[in-house]
Structure to design on (200 residues):
């Protein structure tokens, strides 16, 4: 399952995500062609910045329809995970609706800085092959101000002012709020698990 397409929705982390897969021996193709996306064996939707421009880019090229019609494993990263959900409070924009729930701004407090930037511990909340070889309490790197709390699809959670989903999975859909491409051995293992993943 090495035919991986990284979807170009305007995210600035395309190169680092591609390099992370290259370190695993996989050379993904970056594309915004719906036909190429439809033919892929694995799809990755990275994103940094804000949900509204990512969704605008996806809709402009018909990529939202291509992702909904696909039957292959899809991994969203950071904003790419957030737009898998029904709606984001950031810009009050509708997402892809592939997962149930709403993305909300993390609560501000005197000792809680936003955006949330840095390493956080990951706590397992569901069983998934995506977590094979990842210890409970392992750390990953985050950069974001919005998250999904109380998701029934959370397989990892962490907290920064409030508890939110660090990774999700349902059917063929998976997401990482953290940046696996910047999370060392833990991130590499998560991506390897995605490459080997057979959704149930």
């Amino acid at each position: 399952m090495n035919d991986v397409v990284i979807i170009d929705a305007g995210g600035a982390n395309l190169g680092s995500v591609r390099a992370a897969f290259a370190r695993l021996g996989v050379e993904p193709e970056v594309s915004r062609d719906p036909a190429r996306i439809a033919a892929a064996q694995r799809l990755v939707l990275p994103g940094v910045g804000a949900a509204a421009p990512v969704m605008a880019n996806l809709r402009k090229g018909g990529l939202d329809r291509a992702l909904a019609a696909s039957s292959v494993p899809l991994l969203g990263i950071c904003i790419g995970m957030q737009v898998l959900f029904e709606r984001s409070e950031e810009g009050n924009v509708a997402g892809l609706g592939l997962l149930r729930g709403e993305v909300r701004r993390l609560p501000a407090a005197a000792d809680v800085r936003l955006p949330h930037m840095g390493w956080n511990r990951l706590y397992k909340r569901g069983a998934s092959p995506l977590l094979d070889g990842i210890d409970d309490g392992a750390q990953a790197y985050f950069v974001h101000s919005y998250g999904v709390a109380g998701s029934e699809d959370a397989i990892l959670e962490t907290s920064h002012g409030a508890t939110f989903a660090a990774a999700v999975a349902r059917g063929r859909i998976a997401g990482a709020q953290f940046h696996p491409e910047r999370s060392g051995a833990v991130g590499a293992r998560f991506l390897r698990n995605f490459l080997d993943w057979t959704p149930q």
Remarks:
- Residues 180 and 188 are 6 Å apart (CA to CA).
- The mean pLDDT is 94.
- Residues 184-196 form the longest helix (13 residues).
- The chain has six helices and 14 strands.
